Amino acid sequence: MQRITILIHCEDQKSIIATVTNYIAAINGNIIYLDQHVDADENVFFMRLECEFSAKDWNLESIKSHFETHLANPFNMNWEIYPQEQKPKMALFISKYDHCLYDILGRYSAGELNLEIPLIISNHEDLRSVADRFEIPFEYVPFTKEIKAQGEQQQLDLLAKHQIDFVVLARYMQIITPQLIAAYKNNIINIHHSFLPAFPGAKPYHSAFKRGVKIIGATSHYVTEELDEGPIIEQDITRVSHSHSIEDFIMKGRDLERMVLARAIQLHAERKTIVYNNKTVVFS
Amino acid sequence: MQRITILIHCEDQKSIIATVTNYIAAINGNIIYLDQHVDADENVFFMRLECEFSAKDWNLESIKSHFETHLANPFNMNWEIYPQEQKPKMALFISKYDHCLYDILGRYSAGELNLEIPLIISNHEDLRSVADRFEIPFEYVPFTKEIKAQGEQQQLDLLAKHQIDFVVLARYMQIITPQLIAAYKNNIINIHHSFLPAFPGAKPYHSAFKRGVKIIGATSHYVTEELDEGPIIEQDITRVSHSHSIEDFIMKGRDLERMVLARAIQLHAERKTIVYNNKTVVFS
Amino acid sequence: MQRITILIHCEDQKSIIATVTNYIAAINGNIIYLDQHVDADENVFFMRLECEFSAKDWNLESIKSHFETHLANPFNMNWEIYPQEQKPKMALFISKYDHCLYDILGRYSAGELNLEIPLIISNHEDLRSVADRFEIPFEYVPFTKEIKAQGEQQQLDLLAKHQIDFVVLARYMQIITPQLIAAYKNNIINIHHSFLPAFPGAKPYHSAFKRGVKIIGATSHYVTEELDEGPIIEQDITRVSHSHSIEDFIMKGRDLERMVLARAIQLHAERKTIVYNNKTVVFS
Amino acid sequence: MQRITILIHCEDQKSIIATVTNYIAAINGNIIYLDQHVDADENVFFMRLECEFSAKDWNLESIKSHFETHLANPFNMNWEIYPQEQKPKMALFISKYDHCLYDILGRYSAGELNLEIPLIISNHEDLRSVADRFEIPFEYVPFTKEIKAQGEQQQLDLLAKHQIDFVVLARYMQIITPQLIAAYKNNIINIHHSFLPAFPGAKPYHSAFKRGVKIIGATSHYVTEELDEGPIIEQDITRVSHSHSIEDFIMKGRDLERMVLARAIQLHAERKTIVYNNKTVVFS
Lengths: 284, 284, 284, 284
Fold this sequence. Notes:
Largest sheet of chain A: 7 strands, mixed
Distance between the termini of chain A: 23 Å
Oligomer: homotetramer
Helix content of chain A: 25-40%
CATH superfamily of the largest domain in chain A: Formyl transferase, N-terminal domain
Order of helices and strands of chain A: EHEEHEEHEHEHEHEHEEHEE
């Protein structure tokens, strides 16, 4: 049996679900998971479906082709079909902070992440030893305003060479260039250390401390050209009090960053997110 | 347009979703919500579907009749169809604790609950004035071991007279008799003041205090003959510490009880729960 | 035995705790609770202390007088001493939203709030019947930009007449005038329906929906002249998803507003808050 | 300046705080943190105090000696004084589960844990490579019922040799012998994968799944001879639904186990816990 995941979004129309599920029935497929959502304001239909079918009787390429002709085109769908055994390839961008890096590589080594990590890129040499420890290829790509074009080209070349599907900024402290954003649209995930839209930009824990908030948070989002304004994938918070210093905020925040980023990576790798209108539909 | 909610569960079989959604398409219905779940261990399929159709063109009774013949019977479904404009009728059973009562009646008066409350039954006269304040009929039904049969009969008569659909025990401090449980199977909701299965039975806050737990909880569940062992609808917790006394546990617990019970009532009233195998499927 | 609560803040200096606790020992007092905090950046010391002493042997006024001369003055303290049997008097300001009102009056009637509510002021007549239901005096005080001075004077007169200690804005939809803010400095509590500083101002649920956040929140704070920028007392959040409409946000938010405001009221009434530097110290 | 942490518990008596803080004042010490708790039922006083004093003028050993004679003895205190620069030495006991191990070693390598890890003991060879990766000495100590006495002796010898202060069972799947428990009383920390007292013993996720709970949890506690009944240090929970399989419970639970165990380790290492009456006082 072969398992596939189907993601669809299109204008809301009658009979979409019936048509899709009829097709699954027609190939003797078994629906394992189906969730759908209608954005009533925008009149958009979203669906995620997992099913399995006999790989002997049905060929994935012919299924895709049939799906395109007889379902996607008539309904004018945006659609993707992924075989579940195909693990996406993730590159990590890092700088000097190591807590998210250790967390991701620990989870990866423990077999929790359904993906491959063939590449780590950093604008500093500091964390090479951590990459070595986990035996992940580490590439030092210097990046400053002055050598932006050169840095960007190196990044793009490395990503292409390693056939990277998506990029995770694990507290990477440099801007991502528009060309890279365009090349990996909705495929670059950042972790920001506040509950956005509060405290965008630099030093959010300091701002949170100054404001005297009683909760701090972290936000994982897809990167767009507007800093910290991309579609939010996942957020979480923790309580703080007057008794916590900025250092305590930072330390507690590290736990949030780790957890929120790990969840976002997992959701993306399992194809549970669809981006629409600068927001995400996140299937459970 | 008429809106209906359809709840289904049956043995998992191919083409159920296709068949049901084809039928909705056939009556020119528009699916507003569809969620399904398969219990892989038990091989049971569950679905909740909301749709709207033209009340001019299609009659609810004929839809039910067609559904039974052409869908429910062939697939051997357990099924229910509810028109959404029909609000369920809820009776409250209370004793002397008033916090859940005030909360429910406050929400009801503020228009948050999609139901009617034609009846409050209590085994004490103490809270009659609260019922009066909110203008809800209050019936005093004494209940002790000695007069169990008589009390039960009075309860059943009052529930029948007011055409009650479901019963909520808002910290009612007497046992519910097997006959009443049978008459309102999966339609009696209790709030227990612990995160079950921890601390069943009497005085859970005292037991929690003695054990030195760092979280306390509340659990709302359907009542079955086994005390505190019915299908769980909703649970929540709050943190406690050594600095909290038993009185603090009780006071913090009141907030949990209110909130968890209110959510369970809402879920039940919106037909979002299906009971199977002493567990609940709770659609979001 | 008489129980008192002592609140202190002053420049951090050596021997403050020793001096205060020596004094309690000198009047044969028993310390029931002591918590202290030092703001290291600002070099400010904060302390909350509960103790009991023999009311036969020691008189509260003479204690206060002694405390002032021998402790507060030498250390240049800001200080307050409250007898615990003296319940603070709270006024509610409301408009048309009734959910926080029902919640507060329900808790009050259930005996959960350690305060008195001798007065409700509203700029609309709509909720008079709710006040009547709970037998709380209700005063209609019209308030618009045009009659601001007159409205403010009526408010101040009513607050004075009822000897109000603090004011709670339970979704009151008018601005509070600078004169009222000055008269009740750090004694006016507002509930804002977002996790501030995100989404200040009007329609925060709409903004949150548009931004696609995965958590929404509520914030209770003391009112200052800067809208939604006063010292935060309490915040809480709940998770939302793409499947929730703005109406769902609003309904889930009502639960947050109720809960967060109730906690802030409780903290203030039990004298557990000290305001400093536009932030709060909140003792547990 | 030298910083010390003082932990005290004893029968509640008048003037304890005054006496202790007078002493700190007498050595020109500066109190950085003071928190106290009175267990009113048991009449026990608990205090944690951090202070700094001039290491030139005052010697730690003479302070301890003075403290014992003039404070601890008169009040019959249980007491400990720790210099903060002295990091406790922690041994990890592991079996085959690696997720907590990766998490702890990642945090340790990232400099988040204020302790040293000179030793990992395992009853299997499987995770030696992880220990090697982080360059922590790994000792294989076979342990089965048949060779219990021998295994225990090896464990005790290794702990003694490495001057271990406390032991963490990071999903170690063997019982701890009474002699080891006695040797490290209140110094062996376990992580159990349920919110105790619910689901003690084996396979708690399976039991939770069967019961249909809506929250699952993890509990970190000190090990006593009664399985899963020792003093609880920290607990946390996460929400689950009918849509989660047992495998999902296990995967979500791993995050809880990691987080709860890491917090308990941190609390213990910073000497923030006092055990009394099979419960913990956990200072914030």
